[in-house]
Every structure is written in C-alpha cells, then in structure tokens.
Amino acid sequence: MEEVLYKWTNYLTGWQPRWFVLDNGILSYYDSQDDVCKGSKGSVKMAVCEIKSV
User: What is the pLDDT at residue 50?
Assistant: First the structure.
C-alpha cells in the first residue's frame, strides 16, 4: 500500500506531504515517490506499534 500522507516536520515548515509505503508490516516514508530509490527517511515496524484514534 502506498500513498501521500502529511507528516509534521517542525514549527517552521509545519505539515509536509511525504510518500508513505506499507510493505510487510513496515511503514516507511520518503520525501516523494521519486525518492524511493534513494532509501527511506524513516521507518516503523507496525507490529510493535499501538495505534489509537485521537
């Protein structure tokens, strides 16, 4: 599953669009879809996460 989501970066730039990829239980993000070949900016193993609605 792949999609653009907004990620909080900092108070100066606020929410920024990022390309997110969920693959084999790992959620990774990139600056854009074109940057996937450069490697992720960060990733999270979803199996060890607790997700809550706010």
Answer: 84
Overall pTM surpassing 0.70 (yes/no) = yes
- C-alpha dist (Å) from residue 12 to 7, 29, 42: 13, 20, 20
CATH architecture of the domain covering 2-48: Roll (2.30)
Q: What residues contact residue 2 under an 8 Å CB cut-off, 6+ apart? A: 19, 20, 21, 22, 33
Cα–Cα distance measured from residue 2 to residue 27, given in angstroms and rounded to the nearest whole number: 10
Nearest to 30 by CA among 38, 10, 47, 15: 38
